[in-house]
Design goal:
The protein is an alpha+beta fold and about 180 residues long. The protein contains 4 helices and 9 strands.
């Protein structure tokens, strides 16, 4: 039996097409004598029905590290200068990444489409790296705090890593006005 994974008017990424869309209609496929639908497809305005495994929700990833203040995410921005056919070799043809650093879908890190054209895999890597920066900073803070709390019981190589982590965090947390 199937249950709907997406709701009407929800923004979803259509993996097989490589674009964002809105769920316009939920289409259950029923079988006689069964109380629940066998499967559910979604109409997203792209000319055919899509199964749930072809779609991805627009929700930001939840942090696995408690205390992360920032929840950054990647959204796909349409490439206005090239068609999907012209950039078929890109990781996500027809789009390039934008890292959103706030609650709304504007504000954050963007790359011009022309720059993305030069090095699409490098830009995708940078986007993932930037998106996960708050989580990595929390991981570094946890390492530094652990090394401080267990000062005499931590191996030397972990202590060296904690010192390097502390130096990175000092650089990240520095006040520009100082």
């Amino acid at each position: 039996m199937a249950k709907a994974q997406f709701h009407k008017n929800q923004r979803v990424y259509v993996r097989t097409v490589g674009t964002w869309s809105i769920v316009e209609k939920i289409i259950p496929h029923w079988t006689k004598g069964i109380d629940e639908p066998l499967r559910i497809h979604y109409e997203v305005g792209l000319g055919r029905e899509f199964a749930a495994d072809e779609l991805q929700a627009d929700a930001p990833e939840k942090s696995t590290i408690s205390g992360t203040a920032e929840q950054w995410r990647i959204i796909r921005t349409k490439n206005k200068s090239k068609s999907i056919e012209d950039c078929a070799g890109h990781p996500y043809p027809g789009t390039h990444p934008t890292v959103v650093t706030g609650d709304s879908d504007w504000g954050g890190w963007r790359v011009p489409g022309a720059e993305y054209e030069l090095h699409p895999f490098r830009i995708e890597f940078q986007a993932r790296l930037i998106m996960n920066s708050p989580k990595m900073a929390m991981l570094l803070r946890s390492l530094v705090n652990y090394a401080r709390m267990e000062a005499g019981n931590v191996p030397e190589d972990v202590t060296a890593l904690a010192q390097e982590a502390a130096a990175i965090l000092r650089h990240v947390d520095q006040d520009v006005n100082q």
